[in-house]
Amino acid sequence: MTSNLPRRRAERRGLRLWPVGTVLTLTFAGAIAVAAAVFFAGWDLLGAQGLKPERRLTSSTLFDLVKLSFGVVAGAGALVALVVAYRRQRVDEDGALRDATRLHTERFTTAVSQLGEESAAVRLGGVHALAGLADDAPTRDLRQTCIDVLCAYLRLPYTPEADLPSGDADARHAYLALREVRHTVIRLIRDHLRLAPEHPHSWQGHDLDFTGVVFDGGNFSGAVFSGGRVDFRDARFSDGMVDFGFARFFGGMVHFNGAVFSGGTVHFDHAEFSGGTVTFISAEFSGGTVAFDHAEFSGGTVIFRGGAFSGGTVRFDRAECRTVDFVDARFTGGTVDFSDADGVAPSGLVPSGGQPLPNGLSLPQAWCPPTR
Fold it and tell me: Which keywords are on file for this protein (predicted)?
């Protein structure tokens, strides 16, 4: 398991400090420049025209010069102490980051090794450990690495229940255990995507790669896809129920290109597509039910271009359409129901030239071309 999972090295720049002599020189030069600027500004504001020359050096003047000398020395010492303290703080912070990164790497190695264990309970422990590591990661890149491993676990070869050997109890038990682990990964990702962006444990804005994943259930309801790149390319939704209900898609890119919806139920009920781009380009809808009931397409673009609707049911009951693209979509079977949808007809959906609607496609009367 460990050898097959990608590991992204944290791209953390090393600590770069200028030579102390250079820093002190620049600090003194800056201090003198600021003092001069303040002096001449005050001089101009006070309207001073000149200085009265002293013919003899009095004791008072001498004492003032001594105080001025000590003040300059004290100020120089303060500047030196400030520069040294700043450098020490930077070095300490960098050392703390190195220590945190080293500890993170050790825990990461342990958690990943658990994912390869035979026991489902141990694998579940590894999944939770990786999620906790992502929350505690000292850098954003290390958090992304943990997320990448969880997504990679879902991309591993997986046989859904419908393809199991008939009557093989051991295979079914192994399948149920593996499904529990996989659904736990999905649930943990969903929970972190529900957190507000400013929350320290939010995973919004991170990349999520579900390319080719077989989904036989799972719950993304209420997740917010607000940035980064989310990829469901060539995923298969073949069994069970996958719930995107009340999910929000705004900002970033979410791809379902080439995904296959061949069974089970996929819910996008009350989902909000309000920004960014969500693409179902060349997706195949050949079975099961895909429901966009009460979904709101109010911003950004949702693209079904080149989609193949050959079976099953795709519903848009009470969906609010604004920027939806069905150019070059093919309707050869099944049911695609927009009859209770509102808003603007998706581009490429209504046949031009008075052509009849494809079999299985239902549109609101207001969208239908006038009959001749």
Answer: Membrane, Transmembrane, Transmembrane helix
